[in-house]
Amino acid sequence: xxxxxxxxxxxxxxxxxxxxxxxxxxxxxxxxxxxxxxxxxxxxxxxxxxxxxxxxxxxxxxxxxxxxxxxxxxxxxxxxxxxxxxxxxxxxxxxxxxxxxxxxxxxxxxxxxxxxxxxxxxxxxxxxxxxxxxxxxxxxxxxxxxxxxxxxxxxxxxxxxxxxxxxxxxxxxxxxxxxxxxxxxxxxxxxxxxxxxxxxxxxxxxxxxxxxxxxxxxxxxxxxxxxxxxxxxxxxxxxxxxxxxxxxxxxxxxxxxxxxxxxxxxxxxxxxxxxxxxxxxxxxx
Length: 285
Ligand code: FAD
Ligand code: FES
Ligand code: MG
Fold this sequence. Notes:
Elements: E1 4-11, E2 14-20, H1 22-27, E3 33-37, E4 45-49, E5 52-54, E6 59-65, H2 69-76, E7 85-90, E8 101-107, H3 111-123, E9 127-134, H4 143-149, E10 152-157, E11 164-165, H5 169-177, E12 184-188, H6 191-201, E13 207-211, E14 227-230, E15 233-236, H7 237-240, E16 243-245, H8 251-258, H9 262-284
Parallel strand pairs: 8-9, 8-12, 9-10, 10-11, 12-13
Antiparallel strand pairs: 1-2, 2-6, 3-4, 3-7, 5-6, 13-16, 14-15
Helix pairs in contact: 5-6, 6-8
This protein binds flavin-adenine dinucleotide (FAD), FE2/S2 (inorganic) cluster and magnesium ion.
């Protein structure tokens, strides 16, 4: 169980892994995630979306960006290695339904969690427009997979190195201005992008779902690490989410809480890059 079957590099620091996990592969639904631990004893637990699953092969797929200590450790694992602890499927599945026209908006690594949702929305009979955004071409992931599903695919890069230059909110607004306007927007990406994309759809009254990437620890609703404010209510992303009405989420509060561990996260990140520099220097000479 939890054996890595295959590993692929999708972009700079972005990896796709196929992991043997027959029970999760059988049960998972789009929108759900796992929590895994890479360090045996005192390691932290991190959530990652189940990007795909193959119940016949008994495997799940994760796509992750190596951004800090735990994802760096995960990226160092190779096929044949085992992940010590892996829990799931967690969270509420996406409410997949036929609404007509669904716009799926993915920013950066958010394209990975968006993929199973876009796939299921298409299978449910919706017209699916996909807007993918990245800082530059080298950071864009899963374009072929998305192209296969999309009725319309729009690519945006911050620097114009691929697709159109600009932010995902520009084509999203254009789609909202069309008649008929989209029936639903599903937006996944960095919190600031989800905030502005939700503000883009708000004046047009387009229903908007966002998938929140808060800090998670236990993933069972006990620790409070993933607490967010949605409308007048306090919600726990791990058990009530990860998807919520984007027009009701208090993004400013969420962004503030996400920074809580920044100092120690940055320390580990810098230490990792120093190790890489040392290794490179050793190789050179
Ligand atoms: P750190 O340097 O420790 O942290 C980097 C940043 O990651 C932090 O600033 C914080 O924003 C976030 N983070 C840190 N610890 C946690 C934690 N325990 N829980 C949640 N976020 C944390 N990333 C992907 O690359 N692919 C995915 O499919 C994906 N799916 C996710 C699904 C959910 C429901 C959530 C909540 C997050 C998801 N993430 C995904 C984000 C991923 O969990 C973080 O990138 C990861 O935890 C970073 O850990 P680190 O130790 O490598 O980096
Ligand atoms: Fe602990 Fe959600 S992760 S309550
Ligand atoms: Mg960490």
